[in-house]
Design a protein that fits this description.
CATH class of the largest domain: Alpha Beta
Strand content: 5-15%
Structural class: alpha/beta
Number of domains: 2
Largest sheet: 7 strands, mixed
Radius of gyration: 23 Å
Shape: globular
Length: 470
């Protein structure tokens, strides 16, 4: 007899992921039927027109096909005699010397090329590059042995939560609204969700009062709270936490003996000139806090790289005892290692072309063009949505999304609204209930990634729909 739905675990059946939920499935059906759909449901930059950086793809091409450099798959020279031309003479016009140098360094680090497994934590040379990146970014030391390369930040989230959740009584504090991956993974691992609300009226900041209330409410229900998750910059809110707010969260975690999982994948996406990204690692170091376990996540999927399909990223851990690190390494080894092309792109992310190198000027032009477009679209989208009667939109300080609040007719839900919007206009957004929201409010999430013309079309379509929605 085939497997039946009733044979599955309740944790599997209860797991939901709104970003690719039923409204997106309906959008795909409409598209197959010939409707034009504007997908604003997911942060997938290159699917919505963002071009990959030349330097990243050059290095990756050379790593995947080292013969372009006159090397074999392990990065060893194939030049058979002194009479053979050097790789730079044969291919120098196609690939800049610094891209060739980066590819050689990566291949030397892998020992066997991109087609072989690396050690479970990832290629040591790449982990050393990440450690240098963190040191340069934050002015603090970073240990390559405390860095785990991953198939995107999603796998790091799973690894951290798998370590922290030991039984059904264990709770993880989640921001509301939050990225649905966290909710889904906690459910899948059989843990308890401990929601804490972000303050929409104060730009989605965290409040110590609301954190303490959420913690105590959970404790009274018999939940053993193990950790707090923080997304900075925020998804779906677009908020960027300031130094003071991060310091408060660290103090809260220390006072309640909690670990911190900090999702920092949008750290490059900060659009206001008076805002800047602060890592939790940096603020913890400044405060002299060394008795809080920290799991910091980064990814190649966001920022100005947008390399979602290559599935690369890393997790850095701090304040984690050696015996626990051994268990993390053991779990990481179950999948043998993260994919090697993703590791190579991660190296490119943390080791961009140096000033004065052949690739530097083009890299900067491409990076700045992407960031300028994101900044402009964030401003236009937030302002446009906020100007629609019945919709209030907080300015988008960072990340790639708007999370506007919408006034609904009595008896209608945000799911009703988003499905009706899709059917009427072809605009695909995600209901706020998929991310969590304050009871009595309704929101939807939309991304800033479509072109400026598409952003303006989206605003116009939503305005016309909103005026007629009953």
């Amino acid at each position: 007899m085939p497997i039946r739905l009733t044979d599955l675990s309740l944790t599997v059946l209860d797991t939901q992921y709104a970003v690719r939920g039923p409204i997106v499935a309906r959008a795909a059906e409409l598209e197959k039927a010939g409707r034009k759909i504007l997908y604003c449901n997911i942060g997938n930059p290159q699917a919505l027109g963002q071009k990959p950086l030349s330097y990243v793809r050059q290095v990756l091409a050379l790593c995947e096909y080292p013969e372009l450099m006159g090397l074999d798959h392990k990065g060893i020279a194939e030049r058979s005699s002194a009479a053979d031309p050097l790789p730079e003479q044969r291919f120098g016009s196609a690939f800049p010397p610094d891209a060739i140098e980066a590819a050689r360094h990566i291949l030397e680090g892998t020992k066997y090329g991109l087609g072989a497994y690396s050690e479970s934590k990832g290629v040591l040379a790449i982990r050393k590059a990440i450690a240098r990146f963190i040191t340069e970014r934050d002015g603090i030391e970073s240990d390559p042995n405390s860095i785990f390369l991953s198939d995107g930040a999603s796998k790091s989230v799973e690894l951290a939560l798998r370590i922290l959740i030991s039984g059904p009584q264990d709770g993880i504090m989640l921001p509301i609204p939050q990225y649905p991956l966290y909710d889904a993974t906690i459910t899948l691992f059989g843990g308890r969700k401990v929601p804490y609300y972000l303050d929409e009226e104060r730009g989605w900041r965290l409040s110590r009062e609301l954190l303490d209330k959420a913690f105590m409410d959970a404790v009274r229900k018999g939940v053993k709270v193990k950790a707090i998750c923080v997304l900075n910059p925020g998804n779906p809110t677009g908020a960027v936490l300031d130094h003071e707010n991060i310091a408060m969260i660290i103090d809260f975690a220390r006072s309640h003996d909690l670990s911190i999982i900090t999702d920092e994948v949008y750290q490059e996406d900060v659009y206001f000139t008076d805002f800047r990204f602060y890592s939790f690692a940096k603020v913890m170091s400044e405060k002299g806090v060394d008795n809080v376990s920290l799991f910091s996540l980064h990814s190649i999927s966001k920022g100005f790289l947008g390399e979602c399909g290559h599935r690369g990223g890393y997790m850095e851990i701090r304040g984690v005892p050696g015996e626990v690190v051994d268990q993390i390494t053991k779990l990481q080894s179950l999948s043998l290692c993260s994919n090697l092309p993703g590791q190579a792109v991660t190296y490119c992310m943390v080791t961009p072309p140096k000033e004065g190198s052949p690739s530097h000027d083009l890299y900067i032009r491409e990076r700045d063009a992407i960031m300028s477009a994101l900044r402009d679209r964030a401003a236009v989208l937030a302002h446009g949505l906020d100007g629609i009667h019945g919709i209030d939109c907080t300015p988008i300080a960072g990340a790639m999304y708007a999370f506007p609040r919408v006034s609904l007719p009595a008896g209608r839900t945000d799911e009703d609204y988003c499905l009706a919007l899709l059917e009427a206009t072809g605009v695909c957004v995600v209901p706020g209930s998929g991310f969590g929201q304050l009871p009595g409010t309704a929101h939807f999430r939309t991304t800033i990634l479509p072109s400026m013309d598409e952003i303006r079309d989206e605003i116009s379509l939503i305005a016309d729909f909103q005026a007629k929605y009953e």
